[in-house]
What we know:
The structure is a homodimer.
Chain A: H1 5-11, H2 16-24, H3 31-44, H4 50-57, E1 62-67, H5 75-88, E2 92-97, H6 102-112, E3 119-122, H7 128-134, E4 140-143, E5 152-155, H8 157-170, E6 175-179, H9 186-196, E7 202-206, H10 213-226, E8 230-233, H11 236-248, E9 258-263, H12 266-270, E10 276-279, H13 282-296, E11 302-305, E12 308-310
Parallel strand pairs in A: 1-2, 1-3, 3-4, 4-5, 5-11, 6-7, 6-8, 8-9, 9-10
Antiparallel strand pairs in A: 10-12
Helix pairs in contact in A: 1-2, 1-3, 5-13, 8-9, 10-11
Chain A binds a DNA duplex through helix 2 and helix 4.
Amino acid sequence: MAATIKDVARACGVHVSTVSRTFSAPHLVNPATRSRVLAAADDLGYRPNRAARALTTGRTYNMGLIVADIANPFFPPLIKAAQAQARGRDYHVFVADTDEDPRVEEELIRTLTKQVDGVLLCSPRLSNRMIERLAEDVPFVVVNRRIKGMPAVLMNVAQGAKLALDHLAGLGHRKIALVSGPIGSWTSNEMQGVAAETPGLDLVFFGPNQPTETGGLAVAADVAACGATAVLAYNDLVALGLIEGLAAMEIGVPDQISVVGFDDILPGRLNRPKLTTVAMPAVAAGRMAVDLLLQSGGEGATVTLDTALIVRESTGRAQK
Amino acid sequence: MAATIKDVARACGVHVSTVSRTFSAPHLVNPATRSRVLAAADDLGYRPNRAARALTTGRTYNMGLIVADIANPFFPPLIKAAQAQARGRDYHVFVADTDEDPRVEEELIRTLTKQVDGVLLCSPRLSNRMIERLAEDVPFVVVNRRIKGMPAVLMNVAQGAKLALDHLAGLGHRKIALVSGPIGSWTSNEMQGVAAETPGLDLVFFGPNQPTETGGLAVAADVAACGATAVLAYNDLVALGLIEGLAAMEIGVPDQISVVGFDDILPGRLNRPKLTTVAMPAVAAGRMAVDLLLQSGGEGATVTLDTALIVRESTGRAQK
DNA sequence: ACCTGGATGGCAACCGGTTGCAAGAACCTT
DNA sequence: AAGGTTCTTGCAACCGGTTGCCATCCAGGT
């Protein structure tokens, strides 16, 4: 059994409250007593029980981080950045993955509720209404979704999509396929919105799709058949799957079809052809989300981070 | 403020203990009373506070999962498998990343200690002694490391390395470079052990290295210079970095040098050339680790899972 | 010598639940 | 109808800490 505050108190003949103060309000205890307590604590290997402490103070010094799919290489850098930032603030981050399932997401939030001081909700799949309801029980910072009155870290997807479309248009592409993501994705809606209001483009929408390589693979045939000369994909995984699928049909990228992804993940950089993509500031987003949570405690500041187009090898001039 | 057990008790004129039993021992309370309590609880949006419950019962229904680097694509499938398995057992998994830093790893374990019922330690970087000491405070299951008397899930790295070396030998390779991983990696030691006792091979060791693309990139020049015709890399990321580095020096894979990785991660499958690699049963390992933790509660069963060689395009005949 | 006030540390209530014990009620037995 | 079971529920202690309040002690001021 691990030593408790009582064991320490007994060991150095002092009341538990004194031991408690030694750790949580050192200035209230006599230096001599304090060092006796510290020595005894060290001797017994005592460590304050954070859960018990949280019960009275209401602060756990933990935060949750919920992502749709940890296997998507987009998330790990964001997660690491958040953990590093939190560590610097004396906080710890618990990560959980929802498997893209809104029910799991809700359950996870409920579980987390009293064990953390707040939750970073990344690319949620729940409805805005549900998120607002859950926000009554635990402070949120939402990443990649705009919800009124709720602190959020947004990446400027619209701007990125615009850059990508302009790039494609500049290469002579007119008919462009838009391969969107899953239902409930704010990012997907943003992309579609921008595309729809860009003049002079002939758009074909495909969706909803799984936001993974598999999703891209599955939609490849349809995209090839629709006659578009370029594709804007929901994310890099979808783009990679798509390229894989097109290759299987002997359709060359970028010779016959140009492909642009989103996120700038590692496999996209290693791929042949190297993927042209819109880079998302995942690291900055992870850091900001932590800061926002600790500062605001739930009040509604919104931060929007810029994105950038990275032109590599998967886009080229439209063929006649 | 979230509703507590007292609010519910007051709302339906019953003692708190009855409310408590309604949730944790329903058979002990009269069906009529129970439904009244449930109705009131539902009405108030009451949810038991898991942290408070854990204080008395000693069970949190949480487990920790600590990995060295969440950005390594090897881990996410393992993590997802563990989370899914845990969910089926009514448990939740909190994931944390140590950034390959033993100090962070230790700190993380200490933080987790009283908030979880056990910890899955994946590819730890701490010393065996330290892990044994920490195990006094919280049950562990170790993945990818053998520690006497401690439950473990091992992947048969030795067997995989043997398969890979035989494969290379069969292709006529004699001088083989072994690019190992970080200090403290059991996997790395296993590989080296097998290689050293395989007769008829001329081995060159390189290490320690960062277990990432960067690590592979950094060692590429030395590997090229040593005259080996084949490389066995610590993992796929290292292998990919290595191939990238060799390509930059105009050294073709597999024409001039063959490369075998470990793990079978997604980017390896998408790479050109597609990576020959030893597949690790990450999903099975995640599941097993959870089961082991819940069954054993710390007793020392060890499970070893087989690995398999997947020959793709990054290995070929040795050139004269 | 007396008063004042700050420093120190004990006391006990409290955080949100759980659980052993016992009392009262309802139901059987014979 | 007396005695014994089985249910159902309240009581209160407890899990490991925190914290407001109060008593004591000691030093300084006058």
